[in-house]
User: What shape does this take?
Amino acid sequence: QVQLVESGGGLVQPGGSLRLSCAVSRSRFSINAMAWYRQGPGKQRELVAGISSGGSTNYTDSVKGRFTISRDNAKNTVYLQMNSLKPEDTAVYYCNIKMSYYYRKYDYWGQGTQVTVSS
Assistant: This one.
């Protein structure tokens, strides 16, 4: 059973920083792409940032230059460093991990962590 454990959310003032982590339990599955999504109040879930197994990254326009996604393959962990936070970044953040085992592909989600940006 694969488990994803998220941490790092919380309340921060505008302009502040937070670092989210998502650790994947040890598994015989191979970890491929990793990503962070978010869902704000009354909004649909959206992709925030993604990182491939090779380290290529992509970001939604609203976070470019402020957020950085990274991964530590030795620790099976993906991070999201969030700087210059804005009230509109308030959302529940979810990690998404794409895994594979031989020819089968799997999609796993974290439990979500609340990020609130408010003064």
User: Anything to note?
Assistant: DSSP finds no helices and eleven strands in the chain.
